[in-house]
Amino acid sequence: EVHLVESGGDLVQPGGSLRLSCGASGFTFSSYWVHWVRQTPGKGLVWVARIKGDERSMNYADSVKGRFTVSRDNAKNTVYLQMNSLRDEDTAVYYCARGAYHLYYLDYWGQGTLVTVSS
Amino acid sequence: QSALTQPASVSGSPGQSITISCTGTSSDVGAYNYVSWYQQHPGKAPKVMIYDVNNRPSGVSNRFSGSKSGNTASLTISGLQAEDESDYYCISYTTSSTYVFGTGTKVTVL
Fold it and tell me: Do A109 and B45 touch (CB under 8 A)?
């Protein structure tokens, strides 16, 4: 069974940094893109970033480009989201999701981890 | 990248059909047939209902269907049921190799 679990969410001050993790199980991890999606409480979903299975390709939303970095350790079945220069508007629940194999949608999602940026 | 435009809310009575629109541009919705739709209940992770404009994943009711014309995609729910009351989001792959979500639609079953 496919399983994704996010961790690392916390309260952080504006300008600070935080690293989220997404642990995966139940599938051949290195064969799949993994995405990060965020949702401000009570608001809509926003796509953040994705990383290819072989680690050779990453893409970012304009709102986080230059501040966030997505990486992965296929030996540990884990994807990371390093978030720097955090702003109030980065406050959200962050989900990781698997990209469907050779398709352009997100087929399995984790339950999310809450990041709060506040002084 | 601006969010795709969806109506804030759509409502219908049990048994009726409703349609949710998702309007983008020639750089996202209009560029590829890579629009998918997600259902999200409060406090839960999203669940895919439609992918590649009009394909249903295994296990999703055939009451859900999708279509696209130009820069606008649509999700239709037929035979509306109480359990369909939820938030729905579209998402499209873009010509920049990124993705963009819609603004979201709250579906109410009257």
Answer: yes
